[in-house]
Amino acid sequence: NASEIGVILFAMVAGMPLPLLPLQILWVNLMTDSWPALALGVDKAEGDVMKRKPRKPTESIFAGLTGDFIITGLLGTLVVLGIFIWAEGVVELAEARTIALSTLIVFELFRAYSCRTTKPFQPVFANKWLNVATLVSIGLHLLILYTPLHVAFKLVPLGWGMWWKILLLGSTGFFVLEIWKIVKYRRTLRSAEALL
């Protein structure tokens, strides 16, 4: 949710129109925090989990994830703000918001796949429940965009050509985080070698 906060905060400070309206923020949270979170909760444990050193009892459950949070928050903010600012210059505000909202949803759904494991580039579709959750979230989002429900959310139907841009930008979080995992993995190997 750091991306959502970053997008809204930047827009307010810069005096821009809000990229997301309150109901749209609730929709993002429903689509990206409910179904995918439940699906991740039933994901299988990694094979080497019992070989890892135990955590200190005083250590936060988020220990070691600060870099992930920072990268995700900043990247998501930049991606969504970037496409919103671009879209606002070429289409109406309602459509620019629709593009920003759709990009944020896709970004967070891709991010869920990266959260499955601490190892880089593991099999992406191994959690069938996450696949179902993603399809449900995308399906429900398309439902509000391409039915009269879009009026209640102050959205507009998007042309299918726009979805290529949304998917491309939305997937950046997944790839950047997977590369970040490689960097962290190499650091861990160097630390282990130094101890030997």
Brief characterization of the structure:
The protein is mostly helical and about 200 residues long.
Verbal overview:
It is built from seven helices and no strands. It has 196 residues and is mostly helical. α4 (93-114) packs antiparallel against α5. The mean pLDDT is 86.
Furnish the topology, listing elements before pairings.
Elements: H1 2-14, H2 22-41, H3 66-90, H4 93-114, H5 128-145, H6 162-170, H7 172-195
Helix content: 55-70%
The succession of helices and strands, N to C, reads HHHHHHH
Total number of beta strands: 0
> Which descriptor suits the 3D outline?
globular
* Total number of helices: 7
Structural class given helices, strands, pairing? mainly alpha
Major β-sheet annotation: none
List low-pLDDT spans. Answer: none
Radius of gyration in whole Å, from Cα?
A: 18 Å
Strand content range: under 5%
Average pLDDT number: 86
Query: Could you tell me how far the N terminus lies from the C terminus, measured between alpha carbons in angstroms?
Result: 40 Å
Descriptive terms for the model:
mainly alpha, 0% strand
